Amino acid sequence: MFYYIDWTYIVLVIPAMILALYAQNKVNSTFKKYSRVASRSGMTGAQAARRLMELNGIYDVSIERVSGNLTDHYDPSKKVLRLSDSVYSDTSVAAIGVAAHETGHAIQHARGYVPLTLRTVMVPLANLGSTLSMPLIFLGILFSFSSVMGNTMINLGILLFGLSVVFTIITLPVEFNASRRAVACLGDSGILYDDEIGGVKKVLSAAAMTYVASTAVALANFLRLIIIFGGRRRD
Ligand SMILES: [Zn+2]
What is the pTM of this model? Predict the structure, then answer.
């Protein structure tokens, strides 16, 4: 991004970044809070994920342990559900909630849920977009005196940045739907009691807000680019 302060930065980017910081803080504190609440079933995150997949007829997804904090994810290309240290062997309401959410992604994959397919297809495009967009825009600025080439590079850079914005937008239904599936499955499974599922909902909605905040940050930066360079091209 362009690290100088103008009105678009103050009006668009800073509020989005504050939202992102707030959301990150909220998910960490909520996860911590419900990590201290032991589930009465005493199941670990990994056991809960296995049970939930079996209840949904899924037997070809393996479960692995991954290092890091809240690094849990489902890998559709390898059919692997990776759970972090604080989820895999932990028996808390928070751990089971996160494990159930990741299982939600495995269920989406097994059922051919279209937004997940789209998201998977978008991953390399979004990576390309976030890697190349800023260098292209900077090069475009350098070339802007010979304006056709400069403008083309800037436009292409903004378009590539747009791909990463679209990716964060497609991620939203995928994440919300995985959490919805997680709560519904847990309710039917007998793994958690109703009052424990209340805790799961709090953890998962805090996690969902971090995705909303990421989309807000991406959109704010995208709009800023359009405002800065949209005005510039009319000169
Ligand atoms: Zn997810």
Answer: 0.90
